[in-house]
Design brief:
It comes from Lepidopterella palustris CBS 459.81. This is S-adenosyl-L-methionine-dependent methyltransferase. The chain has 374 residues and is α/β, with parallel strands linked by helices. The chain contains 7 helices and 9 strands, in the order ββαβαβββαβααβααβ. 28% of the residues lie in helices and 17% in strands. Helix 3 crosses helix 5 and helix 6 runs antiparallel to helix 7. Bound molecules: S-adenosylmethionine.
Length: 374
């Protein structure tokens, strides 16, 4: 991180109103049979993506699913600087283009609200936990790369009073009022990191959409951790899945997913990159590499009540985010016109709202430790 890129936000003077969290049992934590009795599909231990499984569908779906819970969002900071030199494209706002890197999702209010909603979804997925790595209760220096609205960093700082949390992002979209042990900087994580201290825990969530060089990223994590420190990434794994054929490869959601992969790839982003995390982490020198596989059902089609609730949040997340996720990859990557994207997305939304399509997004949690004494 270069000093001139740093735009710290003011220290806290008022408490943050946290998003309500719901603690649910982690049904995904239960071990699954590697040979699916219904499909006979056998898990390939060499293929990370074959380890994702969706939940069991509800054979008797009703329209009576309860409404989404109460939800509040955080607000932006008001620092004035070149980092506010935003770009506007197809009705959405994007980060300032002074960086050598490009991030193809918007950074506007609509996207910030979606990120805060998605934070709740991660809490549902991880039974209310902010992390999986077995970090110390007295963890000290913590880094959250690609922090977005900073909601994870703020929650973490509140929960671990011993910690000093640094959040970095291309965009200064974090709130002005944050806990005293939390600070934010504008920084490009794809450049050389020049922090003046090492960390005990480095966290990144949903940064697959922005990161291009994962080997370099994990190497920088390694170099910037104390011996015994942990790295953890919580991220998506494209393509969308459907285990029972209720959404075929030609269906709008699956077509959308394939085109997302193609468009992102044209811009140097690999939406399936997390398949490689286990190997990259090991190659860099991390130990105790651990991977957890989760599924985000799109809509309330699963049988299990917790999965059903999660599915409603996922649907809301996707409906609110679909245009933001897609517009950059489709127009910049695939060279579609914005109007074509909007027409196509309407059909994707329609099909996602149909509970007969048992589609889910694989989500992985990856963590590992830098060896002691290095
Ligand atoms: C999908 S958002 C996730 C935000 C946050 N981690 C969360 O889970 O709520 C991805 C974030 O990564 C940031 N980002 C993308 N590329 C980046 C880069 N090269 N350096 C720093 N941040 C980046 C984006 O600005 C965006 O805020």
């Amino acid at each position: 991180m270069s000093a001139q890129d740093s735009v710290p936000t003011p220290a806290a003077t008022a408490p943050i109103d946290p998003i309500p969290t719901t603690s649910t049992p982690d049904i995904n934590a239960a071990p699954h049979d590697p040979e699916d009795p219904e499909t006979g599909e056998i898990e390939d231990p060499d293929n990370e993506s074959s380890r994702f499984y969706g939940p069991e569908p509800d054979s008797n779906p009703s329209d009576g699913d309860s409404a989404l819970g109460d939800y509040r969002s955080t607000r932006s900071t008001s620092v004035s600087s070149y980092v506010y030199d935003y770009q506007y494209e197809n009705g959405r706002r994007y980060h300032a283009r002074r960086y050598s890197t490009e991030y193809d999702l918007p950074n506007d209010e609509k996207e910030s609200d979606r990120l805060d909603l998605q934070h709740h979804l991660f809490l549902l997925t991880l039974s209310g936990a902010l992390h999986r790595a077995p970090i110390s209760k007295n963890v000290q220096e913590v880094l959250d790369v690609g922090t977005g609205t900073g909601i994870w960093a703020i929650d973490f700082a509140d929960q671990y009073e011993s910690s000093k949390v640094t959040g970095t992002d291309l965009s200064p979209i974090q709130p002005a009022f944050v806990p005293p042990n939390c600070q934010f900087y504008v920084d490009n994580m794809e450049e050389d990191w020049t922090f003046d201290h090492k960390f005990d825990y480095i966290h990144g969530r949903m940064i697959v959409v922005g990161m291009r060089n994962w080997e370099r990223f994990f190497q920088q994590c390694y170099d910037n951790l104390h011996p015994g420190g942990w790295v953890e990434i919580q991220d998506l794994n494209f393509p969308l899945r459907c285990d029972d054929g209720t959404a075929g490869p030609e269906s709008p959601p699956m077509t959308w997913s394939s085109l997302m992969i193609e468009g992102a790839a044209k811009l140097g982003v690999d939406l399936s990159a997390s398949n490689r995390f286990r190997d990259i982490m090991s190659n860099v020198g991390f130990e105790e590499v651990t991977v957890e596989h989760h599924a985000w059902p799109i809509n309330s089609w699963p049988k299990d009540q917790n999965e059903k609730e999660k599915g409603m949040w996922v649907l809301q997340n996707v409906l609110e985010g679909l245009q933001g996720f897609s517009m950059g990859y489709y127009t910049r990557g695939l060279r579609w016109r914005a109007e074509e994207v909007d027409v196509f997305l309407a059909s994707v939304r329609e099909r996602m709202k149909d509970k007969r399509s048992h589609v889910y997004l694989p989500i992985g949690v990856f963590y590992a430790r830098k060896p002691m004494g290095i």
